[in-house]
């Protein structure tokens, strides 16, 4: 039987752990006691010096008042009788030193490097007052007394060393006592039980008899011995059942071999059928691959058409440079759901007159892009042939022109398409802008230091056959100043599905984000908002075309 080395045994581990616990507790308690003793010695030193100074205060005041050097020297010499005292000085209120004594402490009575422990309790100053007959008490001088902090520290460290030796001896005694108790109560019975377990016969574990553990019949060791006996008996029953099951398994294997032979014949016939089916499947896959190639070619042609359509639609969008010095800063984020989309915007300037228009047309993708072409042509006609300049009039005329071009002015027309739009007009260099909107495109105005303002337009839609336009499109006059930022966005920006739980983002949260990042430049704002929307969606797909226009007129 393999023996356990002493340093790995339970006895050694118990001794080491007990000694460690006792030492740690002793160190913690000792540290607390050292701190308490240190504080007590501070209090005791201050109290004793205070009493001594109180005893000599009268004599010192008398010597200072009478300017009596001899009396002062006797007083100072008397104070030097105390070992810790290294400096005594008696000085008049005029600064004259009546008596001064100082000495270096004996090198054997100090603790170099530990004086900081009692530095705050080593220096004393006593203001001396003398009562003149028939008058008030007046200052006559000062008595200075300094102690050696190293000498006080040595006394304190001597006491600490004595207590530490006592604690170490006590810790060793307690550890030895605890280890001895644990050895006779637990370790030795466990060793006997372990030797008995090593003698178990693997082929007949049920014949094992547990050792008698005197005094442990009713405790955990006795219970462990009984559980081992029952476990080995259960193991014996399991071995017997295993032998029986092995005999039954042999008979079952013989029966299975007969069934496998019969099943093999059936499988060989089935494999022949599968081979014929495989040939038919390979022919079907070949036809499917050909179909996939045709679909891939058609898809590639469709994507090429979409990319070409995007180039056409992008070329119809204006350059923000056309506004010139009419705006201080402008930034546009145009992102169709597919290659092309139904969002469209336009910038125009004639002389000092400026226009900004944003439209959200029916649908997205190619159908929406075709509607934007109609809207672009209609707006070009209104601006260049009719010379309209008011945002409300432009939107009313745009409604009629789109209906006419799509032949939707008649109730029986087949198409029913239209748009929501917002227009902003101003004179370059002025601080007043005019705004009008129909549908779901509000204007967000943010003035530095104020909450963001949402300016909504008229309810209704433009151009539809079945949906009437508003009777009156009201215009809103907006006064802007330095730093004022204006935002126009289609509903594809706030209609982002995401978050936990899943819900629409909403225009209110978009406005709150813009308000929280108002100090950024417009390019950084637009880029940051795009990242925020992507983070909000996570794996969720976008639902609509998305356009945001941000400008600072001044």
From TrEMBL:
UniProt keyword annotations, A-Z: Coiled coil, Hydrolase, Membrane, Transmembrane, Transmembrane helix
Transmembrane annotation, as ranges: 12-36, 164-186
Pfam families: HAMP, SpoIIE
A GO MF label: phosphatase activity
PROSITE patterns per UniProt: HAMP
Record domain HAMP: where: 184-240
Family matches, as CDD domains: HAMP
InterPro entries: Bact_Sigma-Reg, HAMP_dom, PPM-type-like_dom_sf, PPM-type_phosphatase-like_dom
Domain of life, per lineage: Bacteria
GO cellular component: membrane
Full protein name: HAMP domain-containing protein
Natural source organism: Imhoffiella purpurea
């Amino acid at each position: 039987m393999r023996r356990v080395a002493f340093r790995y045994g339970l006895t050694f581990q118990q001794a080491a752990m007990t000694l460690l616990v006792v030492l740690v507790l002793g160190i913690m308690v000792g540290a607390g006691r050292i701190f308490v003793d240190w504080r007590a010695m501070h209090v005791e030193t201050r109290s004793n010096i205070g009493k001594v100074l109180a005893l000599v205060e009268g004599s010192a005041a008398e010597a200072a008042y009478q300017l009596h050097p001899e009396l002062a020297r006797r007083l100072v010499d008397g104070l030097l009788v105390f070992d810790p005292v290294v400096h005594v000085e008696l000085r008049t209120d005029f600064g004259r030193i009546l008596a001064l004594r100082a000495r270096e402490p004996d090198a054997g009575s100090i603790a170099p490097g530990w004086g900081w422990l009692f530095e705050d309790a080593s220096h004393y100053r006593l203001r001396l007052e003398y009562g003149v007959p028939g008058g008030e008490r007046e200052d006559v001088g000062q008595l200075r007394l300094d102690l050696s902090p190293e000498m006080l520290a040595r006394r304190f460290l001597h006491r600490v060393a004595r207590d530490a030796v006592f604690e170490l001896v006590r810790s060793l005694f307690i550890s030895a006592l605890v280890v001895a108790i644990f050895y006779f109560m637990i370790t030795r019975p466990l060793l006997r039980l372990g030797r008995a377990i090593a003698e178990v016969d693997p082929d007949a574990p049920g014949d094992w008899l547990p050792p008698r553990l005197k005094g442990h019949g009713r405790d955990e060791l006795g219970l462990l011995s009984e559980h081992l006996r029952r476990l080995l008996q259960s193991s014996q029953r399991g071995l017997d059942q295993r032998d029986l099951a092995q005999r039954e398994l042999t008979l079952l294997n013989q029966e299975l071999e007969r069934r496998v032979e019969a099943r093999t014949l059936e499988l060989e016939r089935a494999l022949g059928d599968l081979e014929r089916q495989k040939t038919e499947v390979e022919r079907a896959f070949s036809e499917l691959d050909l179909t996939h190639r045709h679909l891939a070619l058609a898809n590639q042609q469709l994507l090429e058409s979409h990319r070409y359509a995007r180039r056409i639609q992008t070329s119809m969008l204006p350059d923000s440079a056309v506004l010139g010095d009419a705006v201080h800063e402008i930034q546009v984020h145009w992102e169709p759901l597919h290659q092309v989309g139904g969002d469209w915007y336009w910038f125009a300037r004639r002389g000092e007159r400026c226009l900004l228009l944003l439209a959200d047309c029916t649908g997205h993708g190619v159908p929406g892009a075709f509607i934007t072409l109609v809207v672009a042509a209609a707006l070009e006609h209104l601006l260049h042939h009719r010379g309209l300049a008011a945002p409300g009039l432009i939107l009313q005329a745009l409604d009629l022109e789109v209906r006419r071009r799509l032949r939707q002015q008649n109730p029986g027309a087949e198409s029913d398409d239209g748009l929501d739009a917002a227009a902003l007009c101003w004179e370059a260099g002025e601080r007043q802008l005019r705004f009008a909107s129909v549908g779901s495109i509000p204007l967000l105005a943010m003035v530095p230091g104020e909450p963001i303002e949402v300016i909504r337009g008229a309810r209704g839609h433009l151009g539809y056959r079945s949906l009437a336009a508003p009777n009156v499109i009201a215009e809103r006059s907006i006064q802007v100043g330095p730093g004022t930022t204006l935002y126009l966005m289609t509903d594809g920006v706030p209609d982002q599905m995401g978050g936990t739980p899943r819900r629409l983002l909403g225009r209110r949260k978009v406005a709150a984000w813009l308000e929280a990042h108002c100090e950024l430049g417009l390019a950084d704002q637009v880029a940051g908002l795009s990242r925020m929307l992507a983070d909000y969606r996570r794996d969720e797909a976008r639902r609509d075309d998305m356009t945001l226009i941000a400008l600072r007129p001044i």
